[in-house]
Structures are given as structure tokens and as C-alpha cells.
Amino acid sequence: MCGIVGYIGPEQGREILMNGLARLEYRGYDSAGIAMVDGQGLLQIVRCEGKLSGLVSKLAANPIDGTVGVAHTRWATHGRPSEQNAHPHRCGPLALVHNGIIENYASLKEVLQKEGHTFVSQTDTEVIVALLESERRKTGEYKQAVRNTLKKLKGSYAVVIVNEEEPDMLIAARNESPLIMGISESAFFLASDVPAILPYTRQVVYLNDEEIVFLSRQGYCIESLADGEKKNPAVRQVNWNPIMAEKAGYKHFMLKEIYEQPRAVIDTFRSVVDLDRRSVAFPELNLDKAVLERIERVFIVACGTSYHAGLVAKYMLEGLCRVPVEVDLASEFRSRDPILNERVLLLVISQSGETADTRAALKEGLDKGAHCRAIVNVVGSSIARMAQGVIYTHAGPEIGVASTKAFTTQLVALYLFAVHWAAQTGKASRETIERCVQDLIELPGKMEKILANTGKIEAWARKFKDFKDFLYLARGTLYPIALEGALKLKEISYIHAEGYAAGEMKHGPIALIDAEMPVMVLLRQGPLFEKMISNIQEVRARDGLILALIEGEPSQIVGEEQNQFVILPSSEWLSPVLFSLPLQLLAYHVAVLRGTDVDQPRNLAKSVTVE
Ligand code: AGP
């Protein structure tokens, strides 16, 4: 996944493009570049391997500028991170930036090489711009050459093209990779995501797959690649302000987003909960009683942290709605020819709404006639527009690569959906529904209390930051939180960590237990408490180091109080939200102590829009 920005307007655009890249760096950061047509009408390009700061330094020495240009920050797919493989790629008077994967680039490259073209990079992107220049020379008509080129591409792309010979035009197009257009009073912007253009405009047009936009200084024209039909999509007002996308004084976006969670949870349920009637309603989901009663099976499909949210939702939906639920990794679901039909509800979960595997899973459901709904955080994202109905989490922009507030608001959205379903179908009594709503209303206050009391978590981080392996154990609705806590630790601190069902420990992982293995156990009062105590004893008998998140109060059986963090009581379905918070903070503080790049961990990207 990469970050793209384009600009055309009356102002000099270098700072606009660079500010935009800085807000997209979470999308990829192994190289970056910028191309502009300068005041003498010449196309200038500066590129740099490594992070954006390297490009900033190069531009200080070579301050190109102009009123039309493109810029790019890369997450390498084809060709290792290097200046040679950095975008923009040039051919003749053209410079092009691209996000996505061109699947037939090798065959196209072969044809171009036979035509005498010499390639200087290993990227699929250079093939696009070379093909475009070849088409431009053949047709003699720039716009038609763009159409011809795009029709020859197979795979995903969001491209923006600047042409030295047409300095009053930017051309852009997308297929399966995100691209939005921003409109201000005097200028036009193109970007992979909203934060890049927020300082300049909140008027946004979301481009659809296989659409081309021709941008001039006076206006724009959008057409369908398939048949040239002119499109006139709505201009939407984005309700995020630039401050929301900034760090607001926190050291890292991740820490800011951890502390935004109580507010994000309130924003997520406020729009669907009637506080007076203690009821929940999702009118825009198009899933009324008649439809829900015909659903025989639910598939929940997602990736990474979003998948962990789906695992928790299984307990909610089976517990409250008594409907069978299967939870699948999107990459597996899409390739096993799942049995889907009109009696199946496919629910996909995605913060970005752009994850390639999740998009493909949703398409599988749509093609096979399932009822398809999505839980998404980014308004207007591809998945949001493909699904037949959307529940939006209102977490606001999540910039840190490690998902935090998106995860807890996904849990709340899934909980609300289960309550809605149980209410619509009568699977839960009025009293149960009202209690579920009351539990939710009390949740943000409990989250605040936990987040205000993190000293012990920071002490654990200092004590355990140099260990090489961690094991996270839990049961029931907390088992997915063990998986999530392990994912958080490994993805930002680079320590190996595994989440496991506690009941499974004796079937293998117990062989790992020794004095070098910190074991994080999550337990809450209830029928599973005693079983967790047994697991703790098994760990202790092998000199394992126990850390515990425990609901209610410390327990002597669990061990020393300094190794226990108390979680305020809540229901089995909402406790996962509360137990997530200290695990997010533990991962964060360990990573900070280890000096890793918390907001942009190595090898990762915020949204994996490639397969
Ligand atoms: C979570 O911390 C990771 N950044 C990653 O697992 C993420 O949850 C996954 O890539 C899915 O992304 P999505 O929710 O945007 O689809």
C-alpha cells in the first residue's frame, strides 16, 4: 500500500504535496518522490530511498516547485526499496505515481522491450508510464492514450499522471486501490486518503473503480473507463478536521488513539442507541426482522485485528441471537469456494475499507447472493461502497499502523448489531436488551478509569521489555483478546508473542514455559475463572512468569499483587473492550522503550491494499 498526492492550482504546490505525503506516510515509508512542472515548463523529479525526511533534505538542496505535480510514499511490492524504484516514474514528458499491483506487467514489459524500450527499475509502475508514452506516440492524443493504457492493465491501480507538455492538466484513475479528489475554491487535489488534503479542503469526491478523472485548473471531468460515460458523483463534506489527524500533543499517534477510545466508543454508539428507550436501531442496514429470521448462518470475515474483533462477535451473535457464526480470515475465505447463498449473512470488518483480501471476500459473497454487510471506519471506502449496508465505526482517522480505537469501536459496533438482531427477532427479552444497552452506556466511564491508571503497565514494560517471547492465554470472549494483545506486542515491539486458548496450553505450548517466558493471563469472574486458575498453576509449576489482567480484584492464588492489573467488571461481551486497553498500552510502552518506530513499524502498512 502506498500514499499518493496530486495537486493542480494557482499556488506553488511543493509544500502542499509534501504536507500531504507526511499525512500519508503511515501507508508506506520505504521510499518517496515528487514530480512537478516548474515555472519554465520543465518536468522536475526528486526521489529518495527511505523515509520522507530524506526527500525533505534533498528538496532543501534542490527546491523544485510548480503549480502542478504529484508525490508518492512507497510500500514496496515489485522491486526492493531504492531510489531507482521510488515513484514518480518517468517516460518522456510523463511522470506517474501508482498504488496497487499490475498483474500482467511482465507481459506488457516484454512487448515494450521488443519495441525498444529500456527499463531502469524493477517496478510494475514503470511499465505503466512506458506503455502510456508508447500509446501517446501511437495515438497522438494524450487522453485517448490514457484510456488505451488503462484498458490494457490487469490488477489494481490508483494512478496520477503529470505531463510536461500538458501543464494545465492532471489525469488520475483507480481500480481497486483508493483514490479521492479534493476540491477547494481555487485548486484540485488527489490523494489516497482524506488526511492528506484536510488542511486545504473538506469537499471530497470518492472515485469509483474503473473511473478516470481529467483535472484542469478550471474544473474536472470524470468518465467511466469501460464506455466513456460521464460521471457526476456527489461532492461530500468530510467531518474530520485537520486537528483530528494530528497528534494533539501526544508523542505518537498510537498513544493519542489509545486515549481517544472512550470518546470513539461514545461516538460509535450515540448514533444508533436511543438512550431514553434503551433501544438500538440500524435503519440504514436494510436488515429487518423478515430478512434476519431467514438467515441460517453468519460468516464474519476480516484480517488481522479486525479478524480478532470478528472472533469476539461470534460469542455475541451466538449468545444473544442463537445464530451459527463462522469467523474466517479473509485470505483463506476467498480461496476455499465457501458455501454462500441467500440464507447467509456475510459480515466483513475493515478499518480502512481497502484491505484487498477483505474486498475479495466481500465480492465472493456478493457474487454468490449472500446478504453482504460491512463494518468500516473510513467513509466512502471501497468496501463501504461495495457492501449492501454499512455500520460505520466513528473512531475518526486512525493513523498509527497498529489498530487500537478502530478495534474497540468495531467490538462496540458488533455488539450493537447483535443487540439489534436479538431485539428484531425476539431472541432476547426486552429486559435483556435494556441491560445490554445500560452495560454499553457504562462502558466509556470504565475505559476512562483504566486509562487513567497505567503506572503498573509502564512498570511491566520496563521489567519485561528485553524478553524474547511472550505467551498470552485466555478463555471465552477474552481468548480473541489474547490473540490481539500478542499481535499488538509483536507488530510494534518486534518481540515474538503468541496468543493461545488457555485450555490448549497443555496440548503443546506448555513445553515453552520456563523462567524466560512471561505469560499474560486474562481472567474474569464467572464459570471460566477456576479453569484459568488451574492454567496459572500449571505455568507456575514450570517457573513461568505470570502477569494477569483480572476482573474485579486481585487474587492471592494468581500471585503477587504487583503482577496483577485489575479490570473493572462488565458483561462477558463488553469485557473484551476493557481488557484490550492495558494490552495496547503494554505493547506501546515496550515498543517505546525498545526504540522501535511505534507509528510506522518496519515492514508494515496501515492498510494492505495488495494481495
Ligand atoms: C492491526 O494492528 C494491523 N495493523 C492489521 O492487522 C490490520 O488490522 C489488518 O491489516 C486489517 O486492516 P483493516 O481493518 O483496515 O482491513
Question: What do you see in this structure?
Answer:
- It is globular, with a radius of gyration of 25 Å.
- The model has no long low-confidence stretch (mean pLDDT 93).
- It has 18 helices and 27 strands.
- An 8-stranded antiparallel beta sheet has the order 3-2-4-1-10-9-11-15, covered by helices on one side. Strands 5-6-7-8-12-13-14 form a 7-stranded antiparallel beta sheet. Strands 19-18-20-21-22 form a 5-stranded parallel beta sheet, with helices on both faces.
- It is of the alpha/beta class and 611 residues long.
- It binds 2-deoxy-2-amino glucitol-6-phosphate (AGP).
- The site of 2-deoxy-2-amino glucitol-6-phosphate (AGP) has 15 residues, from helix 9.
- 2-deoxy-2-amino glucitol-6-phosphate binds next to helix 9.
